[in-house]
Amino acid sequence: QVQLVQSGAEVKKPGASVKVSCKASGYTFTSYYMHWVRQAPGQGLEWMGIINPSGGSTSYAQKFQGRVTMTRDTSTSTVYMELSSLRSEDTAVYYCARSKKDVGALGAFDIWGQGTMVTVSS
Amino acid sequence: QSALTQPRSVSGSPGQSVTISCTGTSSDVGGYNYVSWYQQHPGKAPKLMIYDVSKRPSGVPDRFSGSKSGNTASLTISGLQAEDEADYYCCSYAGSYTLVVFGGGTKLTVL
Questions:
Q1: Of A75, B7, B37, B78, which is the most exposed, with the fewest CB atoms less than 10 Å away?
Q2: Taking chain A, what is the end-to-end CA distance rounded to the nearest angstrom?
Q3: Whether A44 and B103 lie within 8 Å, measured CB to CB
Q4: Which of B33, B102, B104 lies nearest to residue A47, judging by beta carbons?
Q5: Which of B51, B93, B102 sits opposite A46 (nearest CB)?
Q6: If you average pLDDT over residues A56-69, what whole number do you get?
Q7: Mean per-residue pLDDT for B29-55?
Q8: Which of A46, A95, A107 comes nearest B92 by C-beta?
Q9: Which residue of A has its CA nearest to B45?
Q10: In terms of Cα–Cα distance, which of A30, A32, A67 is closest to A48?
Q11: How far is B13 from chain A (nearest CA, A)?
Q12: Which pLDDT tens digit goes with each residue over A75-84?
């Protein structure tokens, strides 16, 4: 079945970096975009950015420009999200989510990963 | 502060209908017919309920419907059931620079 499986929970100190993985299965990896969305404890959803697994092109939300890097490995159908210069406000569940490759479908995430909890604490 | 504005909470009794609003601008909700809605139960990943303003993915009950007027989109849930109690988020395409914006979320309580 179509699924996205993410890496496990992480605990990081302020100033460090974290890299979360998202492995896709059950569909053609390069036929869909992948997004990253985060959710701080008790808060709403926040879109972070998008990667095209086909060519590796990315676009990031302005808030995360310079701190986030999204990459992919087509040999393992895995996308990665690395966030640097972590601060306590980055404590959140990070989700990967798939969308079709249509402009209008960019906000329609039909498959989600299970989420990865990242805790930033000294 | 979220880009799209939703009420913090709504409530209804089983069998009733409720509507959740999502207000944006002409740069997002009002500019495109690309609004989606998500349902999220505690501790779970969000689930796509509506896309392209009013389309339902396979498997989503037809009790869930979406609409849009101007800069405001709406999600209506009819025949409320206990399992509909959850948080609901709207989302919109916002043009080639911003791309995607979410609403702040609405907690639905089934009384």
A1: A75
A2: 40
A3: yes
A4: B102
A5: B102
A6: 96
A7: 97
A8: A107
A9: A114
A10: A67
A11: 25
A12: 999 999 999 9
Share of chain B above pLDDT 70, in %: 98
Listed in sequence order, the residues at least 6 apart from B103 whose beta carbon sits closer than 8 Å to its beta carbon are A44, B2, B3, B4, B5, B6, B22, B89, B90, B91
Where residue A69 falls among pLDDT bands split at 50, 70, 90?
very high
CA–CA dist A16, A118 (Å, integer): 12
Side-chain-side CA neighbours of residue B12 (13 Å): 20
Of the residues A1, A109, A116, the best mutation for testing chain B's interface (the one with the most B CB atoms within 10 Å of its CB) is: A109
Residues on chain A touching B7 (C-beta within 8 angstroms): none
What is the Cα A23 distance to its own chain's centre? 11
Task: Give the count of Cβ contacts less than 8 A between chain A and B.
Answer: 74
Structure tokens that stand for B44 in this block = 């779970």
Task: Work out the mean pLDDT of chain B and round it to a whole number.
Answer: 96
CA distance A26 to A32: 12
The tokens for A80 are 């990665």
pLDDT exceeds cutoff 70 at B1: no
Contact status of A113 with chain B (Cβ, < 8 Å): yes
Mark A67-102 as b/e (b = at least 16 C-beta within 10 Å).
Answer: bbbbebeeeebbbbbebeebeeebbbbbbbbbbeee
| Residues in contact with A43: Cβ distance below 8 Å, sequence separation at least 6, in sequence order | A92
- pLDDT at position A3 is 98
